[in-house]
Design a protein that fits this description.
Layout lengths: L2 E3 L2 E9 L3 E7 L8 E5 L8 E6 L5 H15 L2 E6 L7 H17 L11
Length: about 120
C-alpha cells in the first residue's frame, strides 16, 4: 500500500493473523524504531494501549491508531509507526485515512464484516 504525499513516500504494511494484526508504517528507509499495542477492554469502550518499544518514531500517533483499529476490528493490534517525529500533521492524517480506506475496501481481510 505505497502512498504518495507531496514529496513524501509513506509505506504501509499489514500482516494479518488469526487473532491480531501488525501494521508497519514508515518511509523508504525501512527502519523499526517503535512498537505500540492496543487491545479491547472488556470494562470500557476505550481500548487499552501501550508503547512496547519507544524509539524515534511518532509514538502518540501509533498508540492512537492502534486503539482505533482495535476498537474497529475487535483484534489485538500492533502498530509500528516509523515516521519521523517531525512528520507533518497532514502526513499523519493522510496515512491514517489511507489505512481506514484499506479496511473499508477489504474488511473481510481484517476479520470484520462489511458495513452496509
Amino acid at each position: 500500500l505505497p502512498s504518495k504525499v507531496p514529496e513524501k513516500l509513506v509505506v504501509v504494511n499489514f500482516d494479518i493473523l488469526k487473532h491480531c494484526f501488525y501494521l508497519w508504517i514508515g518511509d523508504e528507509q525501512g527502519s523499526f524504531s517503535s512498537l505500540c499495542m492496543a487491545a479491547n477492554n472488556p470494562y470500557s469502550s476505550t481500548p487499552i494501549s501501550t508503547t512496547i518499544l519507544k524509539g524515534g518514531g511518532e509514538r502518540q500517533f501509533g498508540e492512537r491508531l492502534a486503539g482505533k483499529l482495535s476498537r474497529r476490528t475487535g483484534l489485538l493490534c500492533y502498530v509500528s509507526c516509523n515516521l519521523p517525529t517531525t512528520a507533518e500533521l497532514a502526513l499523519l492524517q493522510y496515512t491514517e485515512g489511507r489505512v481506514a480506506e484499506e479496511i473499508a475496501v477489504n474488511p473481510s481481510a481484517f476479520g470484520i464484516e462489511a458495513q452496509a
